[in-house]
Design brief:
By secondary structure, the protein is an alpha+beta fold. It has two helices and two strands. The protein has a two-stranded antiparallel sheet with strand order 1-2.
């Protein structure tokens, strides 16, 4: 702790990660709303990501319906917001899963 580090952020890679991460949220919400299928885990890769759902019995018709719902969100050009929320305020937000505790050793930057 306390050592200075010089770093460079790859802006293109960071932007790709942000886009994939946002897309994962849109797709997960679409699976939940259209099929009642919940995301168990997700992974972001260099060029693609994957989502694991709590069910495996999806048809191509199901996938197309979810894709249409996700595209409606994307093409509506909604703003994407990042919020830092105090733990006491979490109940005011419709979270799909409970907020997890802070990572051990991570600074507490919450208000």
């Amino acid at each position: 702790m306390g050592d200075a580090v010089v770093a460079t952020i790859d802006a293109g890679r960071r932007q790709g990660n942000r886009q994939q991460h946002t897309g994962q949220h849109v797709l997960s919400q679409s699976f939940e709303r259209v099929l009642g299928a919940f995301t168990v885990s997700s992974r972001l890769g260099e060029f693609e990501g994957t989502i694991d759902l709590d069910r495996a019995d999806l048809s191509w018709d199901d996938v197309e319906r979810v894709e249409e719902a996700a595209n409606e969100v994307v093409f509506s050009d909604r703003p994407v917001l990042s919020l830092v929320v105090a733990p006491a305020e979490l109940s005011q937000y419709p979270l799909r899963k409970p907020a997890e505790g802070r990572r051990p050793g991570a600074p507490d930057r919450r208000p």
